[in-house]
């Protein structure tokens, strides 16, 4: 069954970007030892082995002039992912679906009808004006970077604190410690690409038994 990425915003022409709650400062940049790097590689393997997972959180976006915020609920399986980004009050917005097998994205809920394309990021940007790193967000939210990521900085546990990937500068500002079968996972992520900014604060993870 085709999985969907579902994103809802109250209005496409948003104004006055709402900020997320303040969180504590990130851990300091460090040079992790060999044991810490080995533990981080094990963490990444554990993360990637979990094919069905999800999270609930809050997201804020801006493009330099306009911005908005909402609640994001994301669920991912092997053949796709589904998410819902809804405004705090109205719960109205638009829907974007992405199927990994076909490589096709589908954007619904906008004036003018449904739009489709093979590049979800371009589809959203052309239709709404929002630049969102959709292709990478599912990895970043789990603290996973591509092999070509540059300017990588880590904390003492070997976890990423900052990196550049696909023209985005990504900051992992706060982490959840490992608990039960769940590995350490990011709590707050800030991504910047020129005037485009995305801030994500994860409130709860699903898919790992406590």
Give a verbal description of the structure.
With 210 residues, this protein is of the alpha+beta class. Helices cover 15% and strands 39% of the residues. It has helices at 34-49, 120-128, 134-140, and strands at 53-62, 67-77, 80-86, 95-99, 104-108, 115-117, 150-154, 160-165, 168-176, 185-193, 196-206. An 11-stranded antiparallel beta sheet has the order 6-5-4-3-2-1-11-10-9-8-7, with helices on one face. The longest helix has 16 residues, at 34-49. It starts with 33 loop residues before the first helix and ends with a strand. Residues 1-24 have low confidence and may be disordered.
Report the average pLDDT across residues.
82
CATH superfamily: Lipoprotein localisation LolA/LolB/LppX
CATH class: Mainly Beta
Give the strand line-up of the largest sheet. Answer: 6-5-4-3-2-1-11-10-9-8-7
Task: Using the coordinates shown, work out and report the CATH topology.
Answer: outer membrane lipoprotein receptor (LolB), chain A
Bin the strand percentage.
35-45%
- Major sheet attributes: 11 strands, antiparallel
According to DSSP, the number of beta strands is: 11
Shape: globular
Radius of gyration: 17 Å
Indicate the structural class: alpha+beta
Instruction: Report the CATH architecture.
Output: Clam
Order of helices and strands: HEEEEEEHHEEEEE
Number of helical stretches of at least 4 residues: 3
- Give the helix proportion (percent range): 10-25%
Roughly how many Å apart are the termini?
Answer: 28 Å
Poorly predicted segments: 1-24
Taken together, the total number of domains comes to 1
């Amino acid at each position: 069954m085709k999985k969907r990425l579902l994103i809802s915003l109250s209005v496409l022409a948003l104004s006055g970007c709402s900020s997320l709650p303040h969180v504590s400062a990130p851990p300091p940049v460090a040079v992790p030892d060999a044991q810490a790097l080995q533990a981080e590689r094990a963490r990444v393997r554990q993360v990637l082995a979990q094919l069905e997972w999800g999270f609930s959180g809050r997201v804020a976006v801006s493009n330099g002039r306009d911005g908005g915020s909402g609640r994001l609920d994301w669920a991912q399986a092997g053949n796709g992912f589904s998410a819902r980004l809804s405004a705090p009050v109205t719960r109205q917005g638009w829907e974007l679906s992405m199927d990994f097998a076909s490589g096709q994205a589908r954007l619904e809920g906008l004036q003018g009808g449904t739009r489709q394309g093979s590049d979800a990021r371009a589809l959203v940007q052309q239709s709404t004006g929002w630049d969102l790193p959709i292709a990478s967000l599912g990895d970043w939210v789990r603290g996973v970077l591509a092999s070509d990521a540059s300017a990588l900085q880590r904390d003492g546990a070997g976890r990423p604190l900052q990196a550049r990937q696909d023209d985005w500068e990504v900051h992992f500002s706060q982490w959840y410690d490992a608990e039960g079968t769940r590995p350490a996972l990011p709590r707050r992520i800030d991504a910047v690409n020129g005037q485009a900014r995305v801030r994500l604060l994860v409130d709860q993870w699903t898919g790992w038994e406590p």
